[in-house]
Specification:
The chain is mainly alpha-helical. It folds into five domains: about 110 residues, Four Helix Bundle (Hemerythrin (Met), subunit A) (Up-down Bundle); about 110 residues, Up-down Bundle (Four Helix Bundle (Hemerythrin (Met), subunit A)), CATH 1.20.120.230; about 110 residues, Four Helix Bundle (Hemerythrin (Met), subunit A); about 120 residues, Alpha-catenin/vinculin-like (Four Helix Bundle (Hemerythrin (Met), subunit A), Up-down Bundle), CATH 1.20.120; about 160 residues, Four Helix Bundle (Hemerythrin (Met), subunit A), CATH 1.20.120. The protein has 21 helices and no strands. Helix 2 runs antiparallel to helix 21, helix 4 runs antiparallel to helix 7 and helix 18 runs antiparallel to helix 19. This is Alpha-catulin. Belongs to the vinculin/alpha-catenin family.
């Protein structure tokens, strides 16, 4: 199916200044959103400046510098956008128009803020920010809209890359299906493996970048299917080639190919935000989400007695109670839980009847007594719904815990392997029936858990688990039948092992999922679902207990905010210093830029934003930052060897030793173990503090090194006023080891760097 890249192009953001970009533009990724943040902040600073009767020279100069900085950064930004347009002809027209608009808006802002040299900047004879505030707002809106459009158009190319990668995978899969010899299969599968690795990297980056947690969970589920199916495809295909006349082997292989195609299709649906034939996705409603919405409506009656009808409330309760039938009709729900659920359902109807009665009276006559009765009815209705929620949660999770404990020995799978190798078709048939029963139990468990999962991402994880059991069960059966028909076949035995491992892995994942569902119910939000990540951390997830990443809560973010802001300002200072270097390929500059980029990611972490999601991510970033600092110290040693004067050489060596010492301290802190919430926060605080100290030293080192280089070159100069954009020095914020890219393989990152550079006067 031919799928076109996502056609969204824009932003829906606003500020107190009245700035609002094109409402028709929608941002779906964090990278685009975060790239715009400093630009919005900078422009808001301009528009929200205080209109004082007297303005100091310092204020006028600051305003002019901000305007010039915006214009220069937009100019470099547009240059990259134009280069991208030239490399992607299908977007050239749209991109060119957006670039022209952005350049024009940047120049307008620069003209309106050119006030430092005027004796009377508020005079009507000169149109400035002081005399034409509306003009500034218009230019700012145009700038935000056009810059956003460039970013989202650039994002379309990332989507196009994913679609192209998917198409390559599909084409190679078709070749794999048709091969008739082992030699041909090995050659094509090698190509297929490389293509799957590329697809995994592209979709992994996209998954991390998605703003919508529901889409992120769907992407994770699809990628988990592709990961597991890649090994299944290998062994199933080899089995089919070895036993070409075996019907069960063919069924087994066809099932793998079909599931992979579905997963590939779902990935494209997510990245393009579209569905085949324009269908809308209908999400199943869970009991939890139904109760949550119902309670919100009921509690809303305290503020407004007329905002909904009694029929609406009755319908909502009916839908919830219909879903409880999934529990009461299930053969796996205990008698005690079934009775309690039926009893609470009956009570919920009675409480709603009483609530509606008092509510209707209160609409006609709003007396104090009636309002007190209404409050009591609201509380009793909500309490009843909470008890119902608790009961279905207990029913689902106790069933899940019992089933997972019962099936933990994998006795049926072991028996299938043994009887298959023996060639005992009758025994294999007996155990395949038992596996089918087990599959039905686990599928029912997943359906019930979905009702009580508590969040949309966890609901999607339950649906994914249900699908996995539904599909993997029959695949194990067909693999076991093949082995029983060919008991001496090593490849048939290996194939059965692979499918059994997938089943065992899913059971292991269910234990983690159950724990997270309980965490949500008890008010402890579960951490990132590592059990759906690629690649998986070890075959049996043995190291998950050793590594428990945590996030900062709101209170901790508030405590560390000042340190984070200081780090942010230092990154701006470092960026300003590196911009002054003529030789942007200089090793010192590149290490400085890498460290600044990583420090900016750490600043975003203190605000609960950016790509560093957990404290473990932060500590890892701090280690990489310290390593980069050590490399910079080596570059300083090399520069000291070039110095003619002993004083200069001694100064550089002293600064290099200081830097090495600071980086070692940071590495020790980042690697130190921390148990418990308080100790972890102390470690976070220490890492940010030591990173700030290194950045402070870096701010002093860069101008010193540039001065010494200029001195060495005897006037040739290493500075220039407005350095052009160097396409081949793009670096990402979370990993300084990312290889440099050219414009034709760009993402949004190349554009992001330019807007980020607009932040250096944000505090003015």
């Amino acid at each position: 199916m031919a799928t076109s890249p996502c056609s969204s192009s824009g932003v829906s953001s606003s500020s107190s200044s009245g700035l609002g970009a094109d409402a028709g533009l929608e941002i779906r990724t964090r990278s685009v959103e975060q790239t715009l943040v400093p630009l919005v902040s900078q422009i808001t600073t301009l528009i929200n400046h205080k209109d004082k009767p007297k303005r100091s020279d310092k204020t006028l100069q600051a305003i002019q510098r901000v305007g010039q900085a915006v214009n220069l950064a937009v100019g470099r930004f547009v240059t990259v956008g134009e280069a991208i347009a030239n490399e992607n002809h299908e977007l050239k027209e749209e991109m060119s128009v957006a670039c022209i608009e952005a350049r024009r808006a940047g120049e307008t802002i620069a003209q309106l803020t050119d006030v430092a040299s005027l004796d009377h900047p508020e005079s009507d004879s000169h149109i400035t920010i002081f005399t034409d505030k509306t003009g500034v707002v218009k230019a700012a809106r145009l700038l935000l809209s056009s810059v956003t459009k460039v970013l989202v158009l650039a994002d379309r190319i990332v989507i196009k890359q994913i679609i192209t990668s998917r198409n390559k995978v599909l084409a190679t899969m078709e070749q794999l299906e048709k091969v008739s010899s082992f030699q041909e299969f090995v050659q094509i599968f090698s190509q297929f493996g490389n293509e799957m690795v590329e697809f995994a990297h592209l979709t992994g980056d996209r998954q991390n970048d998605l703003k919508d947690e529901k889409k992120k969970a769907r992407m994770a589920a699809s990628r988990a299917v592709l990961e597991k199916c890649t090994m299944m495809l290998l062994t199933a295909s080899k089995t089919c080639l070895r036993h070409p006349d075996c019907e069960s082997a063919r069924i087994n292989k066809d099932g793998v190919f079909h599931r992979m195609r579905l997963a590939l299709e779902q990935v494209i649906e997510i990245v393009t935000d579209s569905r085949p034939n324009g269908e809308n996705e209908v999400a199943p409603i869970s009991i939890y989400s139904g109760i949550k919405e119902f309670k919100n409506k009921v509690e809303g009656l305290r503020e407004n007695l007329y905002f909904l009808s009694k029929e609406n409330l009755s319908t909502m309760l009916e839908v919830i109670l219909e879903h409880t039938e999934d529990f009461t009709d299930s053969a796996y729900t205990s008698h005690e839980h079934r009775e309690h659920i039926l009893e609470l359902s009956k009570q919920a109807k009675m409480e709603l009847e009483q609530l509606v009665s008092v509510w209707m009276q209160a609409q006609n006559q709003k007396t104090k007594d009636l309002m007190e009765d209404l409050e009591v009815a609201i509380l009793k209705t909500c309490q009843c719904m909470n008890e119902l929620k608790r009961e279905v949660h207990s029913a689902a999770t106790s069933l899940a815990a019992d089933l997972l404990k019962y099936h933990t020995d994998h006795m049926v799978l072991k028996a299938l392997k043994i009887t298959g190798v023996e060639g005992n078709l009758e025994a294999v048939a007996e155990y395949t029936c038992k596996l089918s029963e087990q599959k039905e139990q686990l599928v029912e468990m997943c359906r019930l858990l979905r009702h009580v999962s508590g969040t949309e991402p966890l609901e999607i994880t339950c649906i994914h688990a249900e699908d996995t059991f539904q599909v993997t069960g029959p695949q194990i059966i067909s693999a076991a039948e093949t082995l029983a028909l060919h008991p001496s076949s090593k490849i048939a035995k290996e194939n059965l092992e692979v499918f059994c491992e997938a089943w065992e892995s899913q059971l292991s994942d269910m234990s983690l999922l159950l724990r997270e569902i309980n965490d949500v119910f008890e008010g402890r939000r579960g951490e990132k679902r590592v059990y759906l990540s690629l690649p998986r951390p070890g075959k049996h997830n043995a190291n998950l207990k050793a590594l428990k990443p945590v996030k900062l809560d709101t209170e901790e973010q508030a405590k560390i905010a000042k340190l984070g802001l200081e780090l942010h300002l230092l990154t701006s200072d470092v960026d300003s210093e590196t911009e002054k270097w003529e030789d942007q390929e200089n090793e010192i500059v590149q290490h400085g830029q890498g460290m600044s980029s990583m420090a900016y990611s750490m600043y975003l972490f203190t605000r609960g934003e950016g790509l560093l999601k957990t404290t473990q991510d932060l500590f890892h970033q701090a280690e990489i930052f310290a390593t980069e600092g050590t490399k910079l110290a080596s570059a300083l040693h090399a520069l000291s060897d070039q110095q003619v004067h002993d004083d200069d050489k001694a100064l550089l060596l002293l600064e290099a030793e200081k830097l090495i010492s600071m980086c070692k301290q940071l590495q020790i802190t980042a690697k130190a173990s921390a148990q418990g919430k308080s100790a972890t926060f102390t470690k976070v605080d220490a890492c940010i503090l030591k990173t700030r100290n290194v950045m402070t030293l870096l701010c002093q080192l860069l101008p010193l090194c540039c001065k010494l280089l200029r001195k060495n070159k005897a006037g040739n100069g290493c500075l220039k006023p407005a350095p052009p954009w160097k396409e081949d020095r793009i670096r990402t914020g979370t990993n300084a080891r990312t290889p440099e890219r050219r414009v034709d393989t760009f993402g949004v990152k190349s554009l992001e760097n330019h807007v980020t550079n607009m932040t250096f006067l944000e505090s003015k």
